[in-house]
Amino acid sequence: MQTFLDWITQHQQIIYIVILMIFVGIEVIGHVPSVLHTPLMSGANAIHGVVIIGAIIVMGKAEQDNYLALILGFLAVVLGTINVVGGFVVTDRMLEMFKKKKER
Amino acid sequence: MELNILTLCYIIASVTFIIGLKMLSNPAKARTGNLVAAAGMTIAIIGTIFLYEEEGQKLGNYGWIFGGIAIGAIVGTLAAKKVKMTAMPEMVSMFNGMGGACAALISIVEFNHLAFPVIPGSTEIVYPGAAVGHVLIIVLGLIIGSVSFAGSMIAWGKLNGKVKDFSFKGQHLFNILLLLIILALSVYLVGWMPPQAKLIFFIILALALLYGVFFVMPIGGADMPVVISLLNSFTGVAAACGGFLYDNKVMLTGGILVGAAGTLLTILMCKAMNRSLTNVLIGSFGGGGTTAAAAGKKEQGNFKEISVSDSAVLLSYANRVYIVPGYGLAVAQAQHVCHDLEKMLESKGVEVKYAIHPVAGRMPGHMNVLLAEADVPYEKLLEMEQANEEFPSTDVVLVLGANDVVNPAAKTDPASPIYGMPILDVELAKHVIVNKRSMKPGYAGIENELFFQKKTSMLFGDAKKVLQDRVGEIKNL
């Protein structure tokens, strides 16, 4: 019990962020019209690609002789980038169409 | 100094994520919102590469990092540009899986960092000083990331038809059991860190992947959007685990933001179908559907067919026509021809509108994207509530490859698996023309009594071909 409480005190900053972000996340998209569900999902999908930063850190820290870390880290960077770049490009493509008809 | 700049980068990125998501939920600003979030992401990535340091040590292996980013960027861009609009949902699922895999890989590498040989060079390893919280986060990231990856791949395969629905008796029990084993192993691993920790870690990985597969397998194609949205929020949480691991605020905010927003979006989608999330995940559509289909077949059987030319005449002499597009239209890539038909009828003085069911197509909003691609003006797309008010004064409703969303059983038959789902009341119109490829039931696997009603005429064939023929006929009238 003591360790658990210590852990909370130690990480209180992070815990605050988590709680506030949960509310922000819910609040921010609360009034989305169903028309935008797909682009929104796709956009959110691109944003969680932020995991790429972890991959970059793993990759950058890997020792030169640690092949397992190098290979897995490299793979993680590739996959993470696909998630980010592909996600944003696909979302933009979807939304581009919404825009076109607006101008007409 | 440099670390301060990095902190600033992360703050900017976090704010752009929030603003981006906010703008994405507003039709007029959505595109800018996406670009804002992308710009924030770029700042965070570049900042991390050049400014990140740990214990005074900068990152190395720049060749690997830039190589990986270059490959990923090229593959991602090509995939995103090449994909057909109809295949959009499976593309999102695919990208989501990549993110999940990325999170799982990070966990694997970090776990290996924990291991130290007992004596240098020895194969016997110990895990000194691995803090419980640290291991817990690594294992969580591994499980969530792997489930998300495996599940997304199955969802991707299902949407493009490579993977068929598959379920066996007692699968839910099996799934729950699997989950319990994963949890038990994780608790053992995190709490005790036994010498064979590595083996247990990889067993957890394998079981989590297996769970992802079995989790998505029994869920029907119609529910796939909900599942993808759910897996999307899973990956968000997995990314947030990475944020915990490196005490990295931008990963944390981005991940949790998506986790929360994704969960809400999942619930909103379920609401649009008037089903609860547990119902989607546990009560598989297929099971209940077959009995209802069997029951339906007995009492009905007579339907009326209509020829292309007759339907053309009916349409061109109507005052008001509603088009109800469904997945069949998307599959046949018929959105452009559909727009031609609409223009043709308009030139004859017919009022043409589209009635869009919230879950038409494969994902909510999917149909709007498709029709927008074909330059159908935004004002012509009516949402379900508006359309339902207009149906009684409508002469002809043209149902193009939609089925479950116009099935009156959702209102009348409490035994039906789709009972309670809001539907488009097309039966209120004077005539209904249903264009389908065959009499086969839709995704929910149930018979549609609308097809057997008196005012309904059936027109069989590929949506695109039938529409083309019809445009030709109307031209000749």
What does this protein look like?
The complex is a heterodimer of chains A (104) and B (477). With 104 residues, chain A is mainly alpha-helical. In chain A, 81% of the residues lie in helices and 0% in strands. Chain A folds into two domains: 1-31; 32-104. Chain A has helices at residues 2-10, 12-28, 37-47, 52-61, 67-103. Chain B is built from 18 helices and ten strands. Chain B has a six-stranded parallel beta sheet. A two-stranded antiparallel sheet of chain B has the order 1-2. In chain B, α5 packs antiparallel against α6 (171-192) and α12 (308-316) crosses α18. Chain B starts with a helix and ends with a helix. At the A-B interface, α2, α3, α4 and α5 of A face α1, α2, β2, α3 and α4 of B.
Distance between the termini of chain B: 77 Å
> Which H/E pattern describes the elements of chain B?
HHEEHHEEHHHHHHHHEHHEHEHEHEEH
Count of discrete structural domains of chain B: 2
Oligomer: heterodimer
Q: Helix count of chain A, per DSSP? A: 5
Radius of gyration of chain B: 26 Å
Mind telling me the C-alpha Rg of chain A? 19 Å
Largest sheet of chain A at a glance?
Answer: none
Which runs of chain A of at least 5 residues are low in confidence (pLDDT < 50)? none
Give me the secondary-structure topology.
The complex is a heterodimer of chains A (104) and B (477).
Chain A: H1 2-10, H2 12-28, H3 37-47, H4 52-61, H5 67-103
Helix pairs in contact in A: 3-5, 4-5
Chain B: H1 2-24, H2 30-51, E1 53-54, E2 57-58, H3 62-82, H4 88-114, E3 116-117, E4 125-126, H5 132-159, H6 171-192, H7 197-216, H8 224-246, H9 249-272, H10 277-281, H11 285-299, H12 308-316, E5 320-325, H13 327-331, H14 335-347, E6 351-356, H15 366-373, E7 381-383, H16 384-390, E8 396-400, H17 409-412, E9 431-436, E10 456-460, H18 463-476
Parallel strand pairs in B: 5-6, 5-8, 6-7, 8-9, 9-10
Antiparallel strand pairs in B: 1-2, 3-4
Helix pairs in contact in B: 1-2, 1-9, 4-5, 4-8, 5-6, 5-7, 5-8, 6-7, 8-9, 12-18, 14-18
